[in-house]
Amino acid sequence: MANTKIPSELIDGTLGVAGITSSADATAITIGSDESVDFAKGIVVEGSGTTAGVYLNGTNSDTATQGNFVRYGTNFATQSNAANNTLITKAFDGSSFVDALSVKSDGNVTISKGLTVGTTVQPTSGELDGVGQSGTNVLTIGDTTKSLPAILLRSSVTNGNWLAQYTNTSGYLNTYNTDTNKATVSQKANGSVNFPNQPSFRAYQNADGSTGTLTFTQTGHNIGSHYNTSNGRFTAPVAGRYLFTFAILLDPSVNGYYERILFAVNGTTSVTYGDTLVDLNFSSLSSYHALTASTILSLSANDYVTISNSGQSGTYGAQYGSFCGQLLS
Q1: Which residue from 201, 205, 208, 259 is spatially nearest to 233, judged by alpha carbons?
Q2: I want to staple 142 with a disulfide (CB 3.0 to 4.6 A). Which of 82, 149, 219, 276 is the partner?
Q3: 3-state secondary structure of 85
Q4: CATH value at residue 270
Q5: Average pLDDT of the chain?
Q6: Residues paired with 81 in a beta bridge
Q7: Which range of residues forms the domain containing residue 182?
Q8: pTM for the full model?
């Protein structure tokens, strides 16, 4: 063991160097028999330009990773990796050092295990403005000097699904899927939330006198093009619960007939989806009858829904009636 002492004149500042008051020389550096070095008061390096700094060299013998490895106490270390020009902060997980934070030479920062800002205690509504809990829960992401800052998110390396959150010129907060080039959620400044690409349709213009599957050849809207005007099918793009409604005008030409419009899933009708059975046993027939119904169906992806005229009267007039549907959740 060897000790390096600093003269008291340097410590107490009598030679023009700021220090601490002491009447005796103080031990500054201790070199142990195992060649470990202990600095009693830490290291301060001053300089200017490219000459400033401390240069430390070594290897991480545990993993033999290329680069310099500096350990701080028990649980933390830093490592410079020359292979990819990255400075890595490591944390000890109980058995080995694992990457916690990496900074690349281009300024890109990666946090390996997530980021906690402020307290982990759930904030109250009054604290969500960043003032609560001593104002420690505020995190600003993005360049606030830009008019439309954005946050980019990616669900995984293998399947893409890039999402961007950004504000637009109207002050809306939008979530945007860069793979499909479509906005998924739009939150307006007044607090209202829109789902601009939620699957939805309204179809009309059915053939006059139709029976069986009713095919409407026109659409007022058809977000996602999941309704087919050629065969009358709405095909579910994703699994979920869907709301469907219809309003059909029928021509009751014969007394004693019955009228019935049913929903069908994958070509099969069922009264469990909703029923509109009407018995026409009355003495005077009007010129038309209106049947309406709505239902919520749980569908798998690629299931298709149609409506069927399963009664004995044909539809009345191509310009009447509609079939609508949308994804609820």
Answers
A1: 201
A2: 149
A3: coil
A4: 2.60.120.40
A5: 74
A6: 86
A7: 141-194
A8: 0.60
